[in-house]
Amino acid sequence: MQRDMKTGLVLEGGAMRGLWTAGITDVMMEHDVWPDALIGVSAGAAFGCNYKSRQAGRAIRYNIRFAHDSRFSGIKSLLTSGDYFNADFGYHVIPKQYDVFDDDAFRQNPMEFIAVCTDVETGQPVYRQLTDCNDETYEWIRASASMPLMSRVVQIGNKKLLDGGVSDSIPLEHFEQMGYRHNVVILTQPLGYRKTPTRLMPLMRIALRKYPNMVKAMDGRYLMYNRQLDYVAQAEREGRCIVIRPEAKIPIGHVSHNPDEMRRVYEMGRSTGEKYWQRIKTFYEN
Predict the structure, then answer these.
(1) Residues 66-90 pLDDT 10s
(2) For 14, which of 126, 164, 188, 265 could close a Cys bridge (C-beta 3.0–4.6 Å)?
């Protein structure tokens, strides 16, 4: 069936809250629900790439398997490598050796996949469509999920990048401008949430002192995020999108080394996915 409007899936970040989103998207895969494109920010890109590679269950599987492995994440990795989530082990060793990423399925799936990063020199978002699957693809996904203070700046070509959530946390408006006008938006904060200024700005100014535009973006991030919440709410009222939000604050921090906590959050996401998948499928098809 040829559709008049291209369909999209927008995945907000949220660090380990992204396991809740992964529960939803795994259910969508299992029920054969496929948008024309996916745009992911931070954890939305790091876990959302498994949607394009059609690997339901992969995100929760490797996070639980390596929850206590210092090669994957932790203070030791932060102090020795500059990244809390180890860049080489997490983004190159695991997908090639331990929980193999299906590169061929990623390439062959016609669904477009866009990762959002922030250019630290300009403070502006960078939208990267990823079609092939190689080390550079993994680096773009890593850059999208590289949180300030917990990650080194990621250099790809002539670009220096960090977490896409700093400059475009919920890229619905950008996606609509790309032509995707029939979207599902998965948020990781409950209805009524409003972001407030971060208390870590003094540390941000020191850590990012070489990048004043990035400091400015971090300082105004809460304003950008709240404007985007308003934009999403308006789109929802107008019927341009379906918005899926947790009913309450997701019970997990930005980082977690507790497999039971991870599994609980993931299963909460699956429960939400079971409630929504039929509505989403109908929304996409009609």
Answers:
(1) 999 999 999 999 999 999 999 999 9
(2) 188
